[in-house]
Specification:
Elements lengths: L5 H21 L38 H9 L35 H9 L21 H13 L2
Length: about 150
């Protein structure tokens, strides 16, 4: 193998530093403040989390079960399948309860809505993310997921 000459190495280093400096000047640092910090050693790990928030269903449900199914099974949005078995889902998790027959359990729309919005109001030690409190899902999206769960019989 031939070695690179000193002049060539110096030219490549200068090019790299120039390119790196330009890239750093153009792109601002990413803002990760919207994401939770799970560190025990960094300062962000010492910040208080959002307090549990009780939110009741207002008005009629008016959710779309088909949209709710898509949201619940989308790995980049609701991601309910990460923990739950659900109708029509593939590769479900086993951490949470089986939701494939949720609609047969007799729970009300309001109870289900409140649980999805922030399950910590019912179980402070839950692993389920507070979808509404943290803004992961919007009110209409939660309504759609409730409609899907209630239709699962």
């Amino acid at each position: 193998m031939k070695s690179i000459s000193a002049n060539c190495r110096a030219a490549l280093a200068a090019l790299f530093l120039t390119t790196a400096g330009q890239a750093g000047a153009q792109a601002p640092a990413p803002d990760y403040s919207a994401y939770p910090c799970l560190s025990y050693t960094l300062d962000c790990g010492k910040l208080a989390t959002r307090k549990p928030q009780v939110k009741m269903l207002e008005g009629t449900l008016n959710g779309n079960a088909e949209k709710g199914k898509q949201l619940a099974q989308a790995r980049n949005n609701g991601n309910c399948l990460a923990c739950h078995v659900m109708k029509g889902g593939s590769q479900p998790g086993t951490r949470g309860p089986d939701l494939s027959h949720y609609g047969s359990a007799g729970r009300s729309d309001a109870e289900t809505y409140t649980a999805i919005h922030d399950m910590r109001t019912r179980n402070p030690d839950t692993l389920m993310p507070p979808f509404g409190t943290n803004g992961i899902l919007s009110d209409p999206e939660i309504r759609d997921i409730v409609a899907f769960l209630q239709a699962s019989k």
